[in-house]
Each structure stands twice: as C-alpha cells, then as structure tokens.
Amino acid sequence: MSELSFEQMLDESFKTIHNGEVVEGTVIDVKPDEIILNIGYKADGIITKNEYSNDQSLDLTTVVNVGDTMTVKVLKVNDGEGQVLLTYKRLAAEKGNERLREAFENHEVLKATVTQILGGGICTTVDEVRVFIPASLVSDSYEKDLSKYEGQEIEFVISEFNPRRNRVIGDRRQLLVAERAEKQKELFAKLHVGDTVEGTVKNVTDFGAFVDLGGVDGLLHISEMSWGRVDNPKKVFHVGDELKVLVKDIRDTKIALSLKFPETNPWVNAAEDFAVGNVVTGKVARMTDFGAFVELAPGVDALLHVSQISRNHVDKPSDVLSIGQEITAKVVDLNEAEKKISLSMKALESDSQDYADEETEA
C-alpha cells in the first residue's frame, strides 16, 4: 500500500465542491470591489462586486465585515487562477424569485423603493429581483412625468411572473383603483344633495373644474361657478385650490357641484334692492341692437332698452354706450319670477327736466 503524498492528504482534508452548489463561508477579507471567503475548501472563494449586487456604486466594505458568515452559490470551482468564483446575487435572486412567485400566486401586496425611471415605466427591486411597472400600471390616471416616483416607496402586486424570460411585472394601478372604489363607497354613503363639502381643485377645463372631494371627483360646471358670469374658468381657479362647494346633484357616480349658495343669491333681496322707482348703478355688460344689458350685481342683469337710453333718438346702444361703462338708471319694471329687470336712463332725464321746470315756475 503506497503512501499518500502531502498534496493528496491535503486535498482529502478539505471537502469537495461542485459548480452550482450552495455553500457557507466566513469572510476573511473585504475590499471595495470584492469579498474573500473561507468556504472549507482548499482554495478560498471570491465574490466580485458584480456577483454581490446590481448596484455598481456600492462599496462592499460598507455592507460586509470580516468574520461575517455568508451563504453563497458556486459559479466555478476554479476561476483559472486557483480561486473559487462565488455569487451572492444570483442565489438571492433565486430566493427572491420564489418569494415573488408566492406573492404572485397569493396576490400579496408588496412594498419597495423605486430604483429607476424608464421611458415606459418604473423599476423596483424585491430581494434582488427586478420588477418592472409599466407607465400604464403606475397610477389610476395618466401621468406624463414619472420622475417624481424616483426613490419613493410604493405598494404594488405582481401581475405577471415569468422568471425564465426575466419578466416580472408589477401593478400599482389596481391597488389605487380598489382604494378609490372603497373611498367612493364610503363617501357616497354619507354624501347628500344640499351638503356643503370641502375639496381640492384637481383639474380645470374650459367648461368647468374637477374637484377632489376625498377620493371622488365632482364637477363644478362653469355655469355654477358664480351667480355672475365666468368667461374662463382657468383665470378663476387653479389646480390645488381649496374650495367649499355645494352638492347640487348626485347621479350614480357623478356629482354636480356649485358655488351658487342660496344665501348668497343676489335675487333674494331683489324686491327691496331693485324695486320699481329705485335709482341704481351698474356696468354695461353686453349690447344688442335693441338694447344694453347692465350688470347691477353678480348674477343680476337688467335690460336698458334702446328707447330708454335717452330722450333724444338713439339708433343703436353702441352709438352712445360702451362695454364696461358705468351708468345710472331708474328701475321701471321688476319681474322676480322670471328674474327680469327693466331700466330707463330717459326716466332720470325726465325727472331732472320736471324738477328744472318746477324750479323755473317757482
């Protein structure tokens, strides 16, 4: 029986390992770009930065210390230089894939930080596995700029899991839709026509403003923005404005809002403020060939017929009046039911002339 050589005895004193095997090791040295482990084999194991993490800016000395125990996977028993090439990242990714498979099958809600913004969506990492969330699944409404999500912690579910194709898709939208539906249900249960509620302007269009009432949007139509006229909502309201609004109507999931509160209705005191015989002041708001409409108060327009502008003949109101001009006239007719008021400037001229005649006679 031949004696074993020193090298043979040395080899037999260490365990044997194979490519793909999972082993444990103790960190014996750490450099910024590599980790050296004692894995109980005749050669030490090495983990490069690329095989530890996808983060190339990572300094390995900040995450691993000498003496730490690590579970790793063997990539190559001999890397060509007598060392064992190990990977930590791939083993973590395998565990991560199993974790995500369970999350996918159980519809589990995951939470992770957004690590990358792409043209078509955002990326996050769960247990070393990259999860891509397409732009269409990031929010429950269209968002052109996704940069605000960078570094933000978000919740999502896995909607597609195919590790063989390296395709793991996340979905944040369905969570937001479900949350919104729950908020809508709660809000509609306690919301009634006639209620006064607070909301935030979410969007402004040419025809009105959409107001977020706390998970449900209501429409504040241009005709309900004021008792007076609003020509351009975008000049009156801005995204983020806080408003106190009146619930005018509720139909299914649609809510109509108003800023025309009954107590501020300018016609409430019309019988007193615009009684026949009262002298009033207003601004010419618009003109037609048959007369001028004078705004006496927001929401209260009166007609000054062309025949009532002056004792002298006037062909068209625009011959003697202009938009925005302030005029003084007498109320000659009031119809509260139809919200119509008729004015006369000529009546004031007549009153002045009658007064002058009386003075002359005296």
UniProtKB/TrEMBL annotation:
What molecular functions are annotated in GO for this chain? Answer: mRNA binding; structural constituent of ribosome
> Which protein family is named in the record?
Belongs to the bacterial ribosomal protein bS1 family.
One Pfam entry for this protein is S1
InterPro entries to which the protein is assigned, alphabetical: NA-bd_OB-fold (IPR012340), Ribos_protein_bS1-like (IPR050437), Ribosomal_protein_S1-like (IPR035104), S1_domain (IPR003029)
> Could you tell me which SMART domains the record lists for this protein?
S1 (SM00316)
Indicate whether Ribosomal protein appears among the record's keywords. Answer: yes
PANTHER family given for it?
Answer: 30S RIBOSOMAL PROTEIN S1, SMALL RIBOSOMAL SUBUNIT PROTEIN BS1C
Q: The S1 motif domain covers which part of the protein? A: 20-89, 107-173, 194-260, 277-346
Keyword set for this entry? Ribonucleoprotein, Ribosomal protein
> Would I find Transmembrane among this entry's keywords?
no
Which source organism does the UniProt entry give?
[Ruminococcus] lactaris
Q: What is this protein called?
A: 30S ribosomal protein S1
The UniProt entry's GO biological process terms, in alphabetical order, are: translation
Q: Record's SUPFAM superfamilies?
A: Nucleic acid-binding proteins
Report TM segments: none
| Record lineage | Bacteria, Bacillati, Bacillota, Clostridia, Lachnospirales
GO cellular-component terms in the record? cytoplasm; ribonucleoprotein complex; ribosome
